[in-house]
């Protein structure tokens, strides 16, 4: 039988870093102390109930299986870096079985000059892939009896459907902004009367209140994308492009609804008006700083949901593919661990 010394020697031979690691633990123990005010109290932490080899359970969204509940939110087009960015993001969607929305495709309605910026179907494979137009463009096409330009654009892109971004505040802030002449809900309904396309409706950084959400939930939309307050706010972005002469508009940049608030609205609508609901699912976006934000909020809607991010992916997509791939692998590992050991607490 081996002696105690021989057993210890064997352990340290198998783990040559053990002594140094223990030394680090001693030296860093006091520095690593936490206080109660740092606690993320959104979860029950259940260290006995999972495995570190756990892999996230695939979710069904837009008729496809997603390895992870992530939607890469609408990005860009018509700029020098757009082709690279969109192809990197499309490649990521293909590698991890995700889905993505394009940035505004209004340039493609009357010209193919920038078509290559958006043409990523060969890269993304059969993953969900949606074109994108603003509500002002949809309104103009309806008034001009040119709605057929939308399905033509969708066919050229080989996209699965259309995202409509509703952005009256951004348009008002923008010197070149369009005038939205009709309530967007009426425009969306009229478009759905005229064409049969899968449609997602989103805001662009300020979110939507309960009346708007209830109206959208009653429509047979593929999804509602929050675009909530707390992430990139396009009203603020437009204001930053201008002179001090329009500083009086700044107060409006602080108006809106957070993703958490909108989840509560959705939960209330599902509870009180279940007979009205025709929308299929939710994309929780706006202020999602990391995967734990998304993981928590998905449990708060009482609707099939995934979470969307834009800027977090964008900053890793502007060069070689490897940094973007590394970022996504880290997010994936984090979600694996979250599902294994964290149970979201119900929102009060």
Taken together, the total number of domains comes to 1
- Taking all Cα atoms into account, the compactness measure Rg is 24 Å
The proportion of residues forming helix, as a percent range, comes to 40-55%
What is the CATH class?
Alpha Beta
**CATH architectural name:** Alpha-Beta Barrel
Q: Report the β-strand fraction as a percent range.
A: 5-15%
State the fourth-level CATH superfamily. Answer: Aldolase class I
Major sheet summary line = 8 strands, parallel, barrel
Which strand order spans the largest sheet, edge to edge or round the barrel?
A: 4-5-6-7-8-9-10-11
CATH topology: TIM Barrel
Mean pLDDT equals: 90
Spans of at least 5 consecutive residues whose pLDDT stays below 50 are none
- Which structural category fits the helices and strands? alpha/beta
Query: How many β-strands, per DSSP?
Result: 12
Please report the number of helical segments.
15
- SSE run: HHEEEEHEHHEHHEHHEHEHHEHEHHE
Q: Can you offer a commentary on this structure?
A:
- The chain has 348 residues and is α/β, with parallel strands linked by helices.
- It has one domain (59-344): Aldolase class I (TIM Barrel).
- The chain is built from 15 helices and twelve strands.
- Helix 3 (82-96) links the parallel strand 4 and strand 5 (99-101).
- It is globular, with a radius of gyration of 24 Å.
- The termini are far apart.
């Amino acid at each position: 039988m081996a002696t105690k010394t021989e057993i210890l020697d064997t352990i340290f031979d198998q783990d040559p870093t053990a002594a140094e690691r223990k030394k680090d633990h001693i030296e860093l123990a006091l520095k690593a102390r936490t206080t109660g005010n740092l606690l993320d109290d959104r979860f029950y932490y259940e260290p006995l109930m999972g495995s570190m080899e756990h892999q996230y359970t695939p979710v069904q969204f837009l008729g496809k299986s997603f390895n992870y509940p992530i939607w890469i939110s609408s990005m860009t087009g018509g700029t020098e870096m757009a082709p690279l960015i969109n192809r990197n993001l499309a490649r990521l969607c293909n590698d991890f079985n995700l889905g993505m929305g394009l940035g505004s495709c209004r340039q493609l309605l009357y010209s193919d000059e920038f078509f290559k910026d958006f043409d990523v179907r060969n890269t993304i494979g059969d993953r969900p892939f949606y074109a994108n137009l603003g509500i002002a463009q949809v309104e103009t096409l309806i008034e001009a009896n040119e709605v057929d330009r939308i399905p033509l654009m969708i066919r050229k892109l080989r996209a699965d459907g259309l995202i409509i971004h509703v952005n009256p505040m951004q348009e008002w802030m923008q010197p070149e902004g369009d005038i939205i002449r009709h309530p967007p809900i009426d425009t969306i309904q009229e478009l759905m009367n005229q064409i049969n396309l899968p449609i997602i409706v989103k805001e662009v950084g300020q979110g939507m209140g309960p009346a708007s959400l209830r109206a959208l939930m009653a429509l047979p939309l593929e999804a509602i994308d929050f675009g909530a307050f707390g992430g990139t706010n396009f009203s603020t972005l437009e204001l930053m492009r201008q002179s001090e002469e329009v500083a009086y508009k700044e107060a409006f940049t602080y108006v809106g609804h957070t993703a958490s608030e909108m989840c509560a609205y959705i939960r209330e609508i599902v509870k009180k008006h279940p007979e009205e609901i025709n929308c299929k699912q939710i994309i929780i976006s706006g202020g999602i700083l990391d995967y734990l934000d998304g993981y928590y909020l998905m449990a708060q809607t009482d609707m099939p949901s995934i979470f969307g991010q834009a800027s977090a992916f964008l900053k890793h997509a502007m060069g070689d593919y490897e940094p973007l791939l590394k970022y996504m692998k880290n997010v994936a590992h984090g979600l694996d661990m979250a599902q294994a050991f964290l149970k979201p607490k119900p929102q009060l």
